[in-house]
Amino acid sequence: MDPQPEATGQPLSSDEIGLIHAWWRAANYLSVGQIYLLDNPLLREPLKMDHVKPRLLGHWGTTPGLNFLYVHLNRVIKARGLNALFIAGPGHGAPGVVANTWLEGTYSEVYPAIGPDEDGLRQLFRQFSFPGGIPSHASPDTPGSIHEGGELGYSLLHAFGAAFDNPDLIVACVVGDGEAETGPLATSWHSNKFLNPATDGAVLPILHLNGYKIASPTVLARISHTELDALFRGYGYLPIFVDGEEPDAMHRAIAAALDDAVDRIHAIQKAARDGGVTTRPLWPMIVLRSLKGWTGPKIVDGQKSEGFWRAHQVPFTMDKPEHLGLLEEWMRSYHPEELFDDGGRLRPEIAALAPRGDRRMSANPHANGGALMRPLRLPDFASYAVPVVHPGESDGEATQVMGTFLRDVVRENAQARNFRVFGPDETASNRLQTIFEATDRSWDAETIADDVHLDPSGRVMEVLSEHCCQGWLEGYLLTGRHGLFSCYEAFIHIVDSMVNQHAKWLKTAKEVPWRRPIASLNYLLTSHVWRQDHNGFSHQDPGFVDHVVNKKADIVRVYFPPDANTLLFVTDHCLRSWDRINVIVAGKQPSPQWLDMNAAIKHCTRGIGIWDWASNDRSGEPDVVMACAGDVPTLETLAAVSLLRVQLPELKVRVVNVVDLMTLQPNSQHPHGLSDSAFDALFTTDKPVIFAYHGYPALIHRLTYKRTNHQNIHVHGFEEEGSTTTPFDMVVRNHLDRFHLMGKVIDHVELPDSAAAYAKQTIDDQLVEHKRYIAAHGIDMPAVRDWRWPSGA
Amino acid sequence: MDPQPEATGQPLSSDEIGLIHAWWRAANYLSVGQIYLLDNPLLREPLKMDHVKPRLLGHWGTTPGLNFLYVHLNRVIKARGLNALFIAGPGHGAPGVVANTWLEGTYSEVYPAIGPDEDGLRQLFRQFSFPGGIPSHASPDTPGSIHEGGELGYSLLHAFGAAFDNPDLIVACVVGDGEAETGPLATSWHSNKFLNPATDGAVLPILHLNGYKIASPTVLARISHTELDALFRGYGYLPIFVDGEEPDAMHRAIAAALDDAVDRIHAIQKAARDGGVTTRPLWPMIVLRSLKGWTGPKIVDGQKSEGFWRAHQVPFTMDKPEHLGLLEEWMRSYHPEELFDDGGRLRPEIAALAPRGDRRMSANPHANGGALMRPLRLPDFASYAVPVVHPGESDGEATQVMGTFLRDVVRENAQARNFRVFGPDETASNRLQTIFEATDRSWDAETIADDVHLDPSGRVMEVLSEHCCQGWLEGYLLTGRHGLFSCYEAFIHIVDSMVNQHAKWLKTAKEVPWRRPIASLNYLLTSHVWRQDHNGFSHQDPGFVDHVVNKKADIVRVYFPPDANTLLFVTDHCLRSWDRINVIVAGKQPSPQWLDMNAAIKHCTRGIGIWDWASNDRSGEPDVVMACAGDVPTLETLAAVSLLRVQLPELKVRVVNVVDLMTLQPNSQHPHGLSDSAFDALFTTDKPVIFAYHGYPALIHRLTYKRTNHQNIHVHGFEEEGSTTTPFDMVVRNHLDRFHLMGKVIDHVELPDSAAAYAKQTIDDQLVEHKRYIAAHGIDMPAVRDWRWPSGA
C-alpha cells in the first residue's frame, strides 16, 4: 500500500493563517447570523430578543466544517489558478455556503438587493429560512451550487458527473458522514473506475467526519482508523487524514492535505495526458475529522453541544432568557469588529483571499451549466427511417433503429465531448448496441484480453446502479452537457426519489433569473412490462409514468411512440429540449411498423391523432373509438380492429393513437393538453372509447376525468398480473389483448343479439384455444404470432 | 490486521469430495435441464429438437456457483447440526436453487405433482420459465426462499433482517458481483454494526465474484486483490478467499473456508454469549472467485463462453443444428446415469448428503416465516387516549402519543423479541422518543461516554439509509416477526422500488398454498409535506401514496388519522394485520385533537364518516360537503367551516372526514371501498364537494371518478408549490388553506350576490394580511395561530 503521503506544498505562514482564520470566523459569524438574527447584524448594540428571529430554523452542525474547507480551497485555487467547483453534500449546509458566496462578492452581484455591506448583511440574515427567503440547503438560488443536498446521497455522483469531459475542472465534493451511510453514496465511491484522467476532470472527495447525524453517531465515525483507511483504499483512493480541533494546527494540516491532494491530482493527470499512463490511478481523497458544531457553544443547559449531535440543528432556542447572552457571547467570539469595516464590508485584506471573477467557486460558470451549454449536433433523424409501404406489413425493432441514430449523435458530437449515454449494464440488452460502433463503455478498471467495448474514453456509462446512472447524468446535465438514460422500465423506480429532487431543482432554477436552461433529462424506458415475460413479475412495473406526472406540468413530458419512426422523431425532439424530464417508453422487440416517416412526423407533431388508414368511420361519427398508447397496446388494438372488421363489418371503428400522453390532460393543466373541443372531436362526446394503455389504467382516468366523454372511457392496461409466460399471455392476463378489447367493444355498442353472441363466442373460443396452445407448446398460437394488419384494409 | 486465517475443520476425504461433486453435477444437470429441456429429462434417448423448449429462457451464468455453495453449505450444516438459511442474491438463480430443493426432496414434498422421479424431473424441467410455471428467480413458490432476487441489491439486507433475534440461525447470503454494484448492497455491508452476537444470529456473506454482469465485467472483479481485501476489511469483515476453477481443489478450498467461517462465527458467539465480550467482532465473509457459467461450454460458435459474460443467460440458442450436439455433450458431461437411478431418483448415497427434515435449507421454517409468527402482545390502545372533552379545544402531538403506545408494545414483547422499530435516524425527530424509555438504538460500533440510547440489544434500528431500514424490516417480517418503519414522508420514495418488490412477493406468496401469512409492513410517514416548512421544497412530497395504490387492492391500505386517538386506533389495527402494506400518514406537530377515544373508535372502524358536531346540515341535505383527509387538511377544513358559520350562518355544511383512503374507491375495486349508495349518502349525488386532501389532488379523482357525484368534487391538495416558509403559508401556496377552501365553497353554492361578494372580500383581505404579516414577522398571523374550533359550535 502507498504510505501516508508527505505534504509537498509550502507551509503556511502565520500571517496567512491569520487571514484564513479571519475568513473562517467571518463565514462562521455569518452562518450563525443567518440562523439567529433578524437585525443588529454586526452587533453594534447589545443583542436584544427583538433582534432574534421569532422562529429559529436551520442547521449549525456541519457549517463550520464547510466554511473551513471553503476558505482553504480558495487558498489553493488562488495559489495554483485552479478551476474548481464546490459541492456541499451534508444536509442543511446553506448557511455556510451562502456565507462564503457573500464573502466572495458573488451573492451581491447576482442579488443586488443583498449588497456587500451592513444593510446587505441584514437582508442576508433575514432571508434565511424566512418566508419568501431561501432554504437551508444549497438550492438553485445559491450561486455556485449544482447540488441542493436536501435529500442525501448524491453529492459524489453529481461531482463525477460534473467532472466528466471537463479536463481542467476539479470538483471538491464534501461528503457528510450521515450521507455516507446511504446506499447511493456508498456505491458512488466506485465512480473512480469510470473517470478517465486523460480527458475528464478530477473529483476530490472530502469526507466530513463530524461524527453525528440528527441524534446518533455515524457509522464511519465509529469504526477504527484502520478500518476507515482500509475502506477507502478498498474503494481505490489514497485517504489523507486531517484530524483535530485546535484551529491553528488544523489550518496547517488541511492546507498541507489540500496541497498534497492537488499535487497528486496534477501528477495523475500529467502522467495520463503527457505520459500515456492508462492504468487506473490512485486518486487522493481527504478525511476531515472535526467537531460537529465546531466553535459553537461547548455546553448548553449543562449538556454537551460542540462535538456532539446536539449541535446538529439550532444548538439552542431562545425560550430561556439566558440564551440571549449565550448567543451574543458566541457571536462575539468571532470578533466581527475585526472582520467587517464600519460599513459592514468585509475588510479588504480578508476579501483578498477570494479568487477573482470566474475562479470563485460561487461564480464558476460550470455551476450555471446552461450558460455553457451548446446544442447537440443532431443528424437528420428522418434519414434513419424504416421504410413502411403499407402499415404493419413489416417488423422492425424500434430501439435498434434509435441506437443507430444515437450512434451518429455520438459521432457528431465526439469533438464537443458533450453527450453520453447512461444505463445499468443494459445498453446492448436494450438493443442500442449500434452505439458501440461509435464508442465504447467507459471503463478505467482492469481489462483482460477477451474484453470488448471497454475504454477509459468510452461515452457509454454502464454500472449496475440506477442511482449512479441517474446521479452522473444529473451532474453532467447541470454542468451544461447532454445525455440519455436507458433503463428497464420496472427498475427506473429505483431512482424515483432522485427524479423528484431533479424535478424540484428544475422548477426552482427556472425561478432564478441568472440560471440558464439546461438540457433535459431524457429517459428511454424499454424492456418494458409487456415484454418481460421471460424475466417475470419482478420485472413488470409500468408505474414510473404515474410517479413523474405528479411533478409540475411545465417540466414533465411522457411519450409512447408506437414504432421505430415515431421513436426517432420523439428522440430527436427530446434531445433538443431543455429544462424538462422526458420519459420515452418504447419496445425493443421486433414488432410491426405502422407509420412511414412523413406520417410519423405529422402524427408526433400533433402528439395524438386518428389513424385514418385503420379506421372505417369515413370521417363521420364512429360507433366506437379504439384508443391506444404504447407499442403493445397499439398492436393489440389494431389486431382487434382487424378482427372486428371481419366479424362485424358494419361497425364503424375509429382508431386514435396517443404518442404524447400529456395531450390527454386539459390544456388548462398541461401546455400539451388538447382543448376540450379538440378532445371531443377525437373521442366524441358520447360514444364508447375502448382505451388500450401501456401502464396502470387509473392514469388515463386521472388525465381525462374532466373530459366530456369521460364516463364512456374504458381503459385496459396493466392490472398487476404478471408472470413468466408468453408475450401474448401477458396481455391476456391483464385483459389488454385483442380478444378482450373486442369483447369490451361488443359490450358497449349496439348490435343485433345474434351478432353479439356469435362474436362473443368466437372470442371465447380463441381465448380457450390460446390457453390450450401455450400449455401444450409454451409459445403463442400461430393465429396470434402470424397476425398482420391486412394490407388491403 | 488479522492474517488470512487457517482452515480449522478436517480436510475432506476423496470419497466425500466424490459425493459432493456428484451432487454438484446433479444440480448443474438439473439447472441445464430446466433451461433447455421439455422432455427426455435423463437423456435416455439421443437428444432431439423435439425435446428442447421452443423458447429458451433462463440464466446459466450464476447457477453453477450457487450449486457449488449449496452442496458445501449442506455439508457443514450436516456436520455441525447448523440451522441455516440460504439467500441467493444473484439475479436469475432459480434454476440452481430449485434444483437443490428438488434434490433435497423438499420440492416434491410441497409440490407432489413434481415427484422425486423421472416424471417429476420432466415436470420440473418443463415448468421452468414456461407459461403457468415458475420464474427464473427464487420467487415465493421456491421452498426455502425469502428473497426473490429479481430486482438486485437487497440480499444482504434480507439476510440481516432474518438474523436479528434468531440467535441460532446462520444466514448464508450469496451476493452477486453485479448486485454488489448497487447502492443498497454497497451500504448494507455495514449492517454488521447493528448485529448483536449475543442475541442475534449470524450472517455469512459470500461474494460470488464470477466476474460479469449481462455484458460487462463487474467492478469488484476488476480491482486488485489488495483493494478487494482492504474494502471488506474496511467494511469490518475478515474476507476468506476461494479462487480457482479446478473442481477438486475448489471443493477442498470452499470446504475449508466454510469450516473456518463457521468456526469463527461460533467463536464470536461464544465470546459474546458466555464471555460477555461486547466489542464488535470481526465477522468472516467469503469471496468465491469462480468462472461464470462454470462447467458450461467453453466455446460457442468460436467465442469464449465459460468464464465470460456470454455465459450470463442461455449460453447458446437452438437456431443452429450443431447446437443440439453441443447441448447433449454438455449435459452428458455431468454423467446423469451415475447420479440418478433407473426411476430417475437421486442415488441414495448422494441424497444422503442432504440434511434431514427442517435442517434442509429448503425446509427451514424461518423461510416460511408466517408459520413461526406469533401475534404481538398489544396493550389496550384506548388506555393511551388523549382526553378530548370538546373537539379541538386542546392540542396534542399525535406521534408522541403513538410513541408511548409503541414503548409499551416494545415492553410487552421484550421477551418474545419479535418487534423492532426502523427509521433513518428519525425516531426522535418523528417524536417517537418515548420508545427510548423501553429500549435503545441498536448499535454495535464504538461508543463514547457521552452517548445516549445506544445498545447492541436495542430494538430501534436507525441508520441513515431508507434502503437498510426497508430491507432489514422485510427480512424480519419474512421470517415471522413484526415491525414498523417510521420515515419522513418525502424520503420514503427512496424505497419505492423495494416496496414494489415486497408487494409483488406478498401477492405471489398468497397464491402459494404452503406459505403462511406474515405480519404487515407498516409505515408511519410523518414529518410530512405540510410541516416541512423549515426544511423546504426538497422535503415536500406526498406522492408515496400514489405509488402504493397501484399495487393489488388486497395488499394496500392507506390511513390518514387526523389526530392522536385515531392514530392510536389505526396503529393498533395495522400491528394486528397480516400480508399487507399499511401506510399511515400522521403529523408530529402539536395540533388540535378532535375525537375522544370512543368517537375515534367508531370513526376509524367505518374509515370514513360525517362529523356531526362540525356539520350543521341536521342530517338533512347539505348545501355543500366539506371533505378532508389528513391532519392539516382536517384542521383547515374545520377552520373554514367555523369561518363560514360566522360569515354565512344559513349555509348548511356537512363535514366528512376520511381516515381510510380506500373507502373512496368503489367496493368492486377495493375491499374497503364504500358501496355507491353509501358513498352517495355521504357525498350526495349533486351537491358541491370541497375535498381538502393531504397529497396530490389527482389521487382523489382517480379513486372517485366512478362515483355519481364525481363531477362536483373539487379537490385541494399539494400542487408542488413548496418552500421554506411558515406552516400556514405552505397551505396558502397550495390553496389548501381555510380561505381558499371558503372561496371554493362560495364559488359553488347559491348565495345572494352581496353575501358572496362580502365573503370573498373578507377572504381576500385575510390573504393579503397573511402575506403582509409573514413578510414582516416571519411567523403566521395571530388569527391563524390562535384559531380554535369554537367549543359552543
TrEMBL record, chains A, B:
Residue intervals of the Xylulose 5-phosphate/Fructose 6-phosphate phosphoketolase N-terminal domain: 13-371
Named cofactor requirement(s): thiamine diphosphate
E.C. number: 4.1.2.-
Domain Xylulose 5-phosphate/Fructose 6-phosphate phosphoketolase C-terminal: 588-789
Superkingdom assignment: Bacteria
Gene3D superfamilies in UniProt: 3.40.50.920, 3.40.50.970
GO MF term (any one): aldehyde-lyase activity
Keywords assigned by UniProt, alphabetized: Lyase, Thiamine pyrophosphate
Keyword Lyase in annotation: yes
Short name of one Pfam family: XFP
Keyword 4Fe-4S: no
UniProt-listed GO biological process terms: carbohydrate metabolic process
Coiled coil segments of this chain: none
Primary enzyme class: lyase
NCBIfam families in alphabetical order: PRK05261.1-1, PRK05261.1-2, PRK05261.1-4, PRK05261.1-6
UniProt similarity note: Belongs to the XFP family.
Full protein name: Probable phosphoketolase
Organism annotation: Sphingobium psychrophilum
